[in-house]
Amino acid sequence: MNLPNKKIAVFRREHFNAAHRIFNPLWDDKKNAEVFGKCSNPNYHGHNYELVVKVVGERDPETGYVIDMKRLSVITEEEVLERFDHKNLNLDTIYFRDLNPTAENIAMVIYDLLRKRIDEKLELQVRLYETERNYVEYPA
Amino acid sequence: MNLPNKKIAVFRREHFNAAHRIFNPLWDDKKNAEVFGKCSNPNYHGHNYELVVKVVGERDPETGYVIDMKRLSVITEEEVLERFDHKNLNLDTIYFRDLNPTAENIAMVIYDLLRKRIDEKLELQVRLYETERNYVEYPA
Amino acid sequence: MNLPNKKIAVFRREHFNAAHRIFNPLWDDKKNAEVFGKCSNPNYHGHNYELVVKVVGERDPETGYVIDMKRLSVITEEEVLERFDHKNLNLDTIYFRDLNPTAENIAMVIYDLLRKRIDEKLELQVRLYETERNYVEYPA
Amino acid sequence: MNLPNKKIAVFRREHFNAAHRIFNPLWDDKKNAEVFGKCSNPNYHGHNYELVVKVVGERDPETGYVIDMKRLSVITEEEVLERFDHKNLNLDTIYFRDLNPTAENIAMVIYDLLRKRIDEKLELQVRLYETERNYVEYPA
Amino acid sequence: MNLPNKKIAVFRREHFNAAHRIFNPLWDDKKNAEVFGKCSNPNYHGHNYELVVKVVGERDPETGYVIDMKRLSVITEEEVLERFDHKNLNLDTIYFRDLNPTAENIAMVIYDLLRKRIDEKLELQVRLYETERNYVEYPA
Amino acid sequence: MNLPNKKIAVFRREHFNAAHRIFNPLWDDKKNAEVFGKCSNPNYHGHNYELVVKVVGERDPETGYVIDMKRLSVITEEEVLERFDHKNLNLDTIYFRDLNPTAENIAMVIYDLLRKRIDEKLELQVRLYETERNYVEYPA
């Protein structure tokens, strides 16, 4: 069988649990409550975040892999889970001191952390589930 | 962290339960049965439809949202669930009197209903699950 | 390894799609609407029902099976799916002419249909999902 | 069909998002960290809790219901979700000031809150998922 | 709040991937094929097994735990995953040389391996998913 | 309602169970073990593969279908499941004698088998889940 070498996407799903509060630090608590409702509860709430990392490229003809999923899992562990798992995103990380930890912004930060570790010739996209019913994808 | 402003996709999942019958009103029952089989049962059957609404655009820098998911949920409630939930699609709605309520056609109607309510500068796509094993996406 | 022969439970999951209306035939439409709300819509609505059949007994020492899952699947196909799949439960079956097709009652009817086909020395229980969020188990 | 009136179980699934910290207030932070590890992070972490409420009893012959699921959902909303959803369990509720919010203890508190609202002749059990991989059931 | 100390069940879900062949070593290949069909394919087939370990007992009043889920996960890793994950159950383990690796028998072996590691005053049950549609529970 | 005829995607999900071994036949067992770890276990391991077939095109105005999902299911049964279900991918199929059965390569082979049976004017993509956490999409 003569397989053409079109690009393939591989996906690896990981999860982490974190507390957060939707909060724009340039606004006071009253305005945050008006705009963000219960998502801005001052004492935080939390989620089981599900993260799907997508990497696109050509297969290595020797391994038959685009990227070794175990290595992709280790990179995600080191860059994302060690920073965010069982943490308060607003208080325990440097990324959301001035940045509102919406799903959109968390996905952009995760993309940025992973991008540095993935070979430039491979495309990267992250999907982040805040709940089963709310999720985001970056870049679209 | 200096985040580039590429486009982001946000997704909101909703569900509704409805009866329907796959039926081309220009054909008689015999031809409908030949082409559509048990899906054309004259007394209807039904599904738990799962709907995923995807909206693509740039983040609002103040809220960190592409669109407020709560507002997206309300729009979907008003435009889709109030019309279709616990209804007979063929009999109880105006949309499928002359249009066969296949998953493809239901998705197109839902797209049309939501498109009017979503800001033009945002892209829209709907995914509709008829069952866990059969689903459609519009536009592709 | 010397395995004690305590009882084991085996489970087989199947699904069917059907239309129904929650409706007590001894009441008029007005009373049905008051008690059952939108679930009593006269033109029906529908569900993707998920059915889990549980059979409890001792392993056959030769096959290592409590019951052959393939045979359990065939019995469920013949007794349940052929009767209910892609049907209107109120109109197309004899079981819900005088019986309200609530999840409780559907589960009891399914139990009765399967009980005759499963060896008496095996215990039987059915779980029926009307949606992911509503389900019943009979007998409790 | 002559249905015997054995007991039936009905289940209703709800969800809420909350922050918490596994923390025994009789111990200092060091001992809490030793015993509970990252689950005792002082700034909290969080979960998407999935709650399944199980009610067991006989069918009402008129409605075909053990209990109206919509009413069960409303009771759960009033007793559990309004207290716990988008909250910090340790700080924002009165229940976990002196009680460690482990899944076991949260389930017991939820059982206690619901028990008062469910008819005494019906049995009650709650299942609480802290994650897809960790959950508890009370009473066993 | 004065919580009664009824027993609680805690559940931990793990997974492993393995090859197997349904095969009674006392029968020849022809009889195995007649009884077990494609499940007895001589070159094996395989599954993503999902294992749910249930432990029932009283809460420790100091920790609020029935058993530390992390320790339960480590025990399952040591006793089950290290033996069975990415293995051929018939060839690579000592347990299924003379025992047919049906879901029932695998569950009984896992129960036996875990039982030795769990405190005698705690009850134990295992649920094993061979596929999403076929699973077993031991003891029933 | 005047529906524009943009392209629609339809998806059909199927599953099969198979054994495999990640193995480059040009390397010896030692090198395979170094590169692929436990995934290269000489006696094989296995998976419950979930396959999602995506077909993109315009609706037929008479049927309201892009492609009849039942026919798509039959094609997938004939081309993929009959070849791979309950098989050892390395030993029982002609496709992976010289080709390493990574998820990437299996997806490419499945694409090739289905492509011949789907009308040329329809686009085709396959997604293959090796586990819930590892999956691939071809072409990307």
List the defining traits of the structure above.
4 helices, Tetrahydropterin Synthase, Chain A, 5-stranded mixed β-sheet, homohexamer, elongated, alpha+beta, 140 residues
Question: What can you tell me about this protein's structure?
Answer:
6 copies of one chain form a homohexamer. Chain A has helices spanning 29-36, 69-84, 89-92, 103-115, and strands at 8-20, 45-57, 87-88, 123-129, 134-138. Chain A has 140 residues and is α+β, with helices and mostly antiparallel strands. Chain A is built from 4 helices and 5 strands. Chain A has one domain (7-138): Tetrahydropterin Synthase, Chain A, CATH 3.30.479.10. Chain A starts with 7 loop residues before the first strand and ends with a strand. Chains in contact: A-B, A-D, A-F, B-C, B-F, C-D, C-E, D-E, E-F. Chain C binds chain D through residues 22, 24, 26, 35-37, 95, 99-105, 107-109, 112, 132-140, and chain D through 1, 3, 6-14, 56, 59, 62-66, 69-70, 123. β1 of chain C pairs antiparallel with β5 (134-138) of chain E, so a sheet runs across the interface.
Blueprint of the fold:
The structure is a homohexamer of 140-residue chains.
Chain A: E1 8-20, H1 29-36, E2 45-57, H2 69-84, E3 87-88, H3 89-92, H4 103-115, E4 123-129, E5 134-138
Parallel strand pairs in A: 1-3
Antiparallel strand pairs in A: 1-2, 2-4, 4-5
